[in-house]
């Protein structure tokens, strides 16, 4: 079967700074890939490649076997750690905004039956993320967890096939994080999503993912730290047993530490 995403000998370089080198891997539809690695290893760059916000300097990124175009597409939705939502719009209007842009690119506004249908869909999505009671609330009146629920609803209402999460729970308290773990796992299953999630929490990576991918440099030049980029140094599919066993010691050997543990 054609992988939903395919990285073929991908490099990302900024001038003579190599960030990612020779990344070659496939992601199958339905996988939940946790991406870990030290700060600066290129995890967010990897997500930007999938989003199409960034192009490889060498190699190719394919979506369904076709090279990715630089434009954003409804195939891919993204949630960042913060600031994914519009502060001047209520929850329901935040969720409707993307649908209005897609349905009416010029005016970003829908009318009549189309608007009613968008509103119904947005309301259902807010219910699904547990914000059914907060449709008319502004982000500033919401807790961090509620704002992330809203950001997830906003991303999912466009029915993406691939959901990209960039440290989505990094700013949340441990208890709220656990609630969010449940929510994301349920949405992943119910919506048949493919998820690529960057996290600094290695326990979260093993708990949520069906696969863990660690980026790090294989080679270091002490006189030229930018000479070599990171690549996937650890790539393991998880089953129930490996998930329960948690992060293996060789991750420590691969230089994938330290991670702050926030296992709650
Ligand atoms: N436009 C750019 N120009 C030059 N360097 C860049 C640019 N964008 C990113 N970088 C560099 O690429 C490297 C990887 O950045 P990236 O944000 O992908 O790492 P990360 O693994 O997500 O880090 P963190 O865990 O700290 O968020 C960093 O050294 C960063 O400074």
Automatic annotation (TrEMBL):
Which part of the chain is the ABC transporter domain? 5-242
Recorded hits in Pfam families, A to Z, give:
ABC_tran
Q: What Gene Ontology molecular-function terms does this entry list? A: ATP binding; ATP hydrolysis activity
Ordered alphabetically, the record's keywords are: ATP-binding, Nucleotide-binding, Transport
For the region Disordered, give the residue spans: 240-264
CDD domains, per the entry: ABC_NrtD_SsuB_transporters (cd03293)
Q: Which domain of life is it from?
A: Bacteria
**Name this protein carries in UniProt:** ABC transporter ATP-binding protein
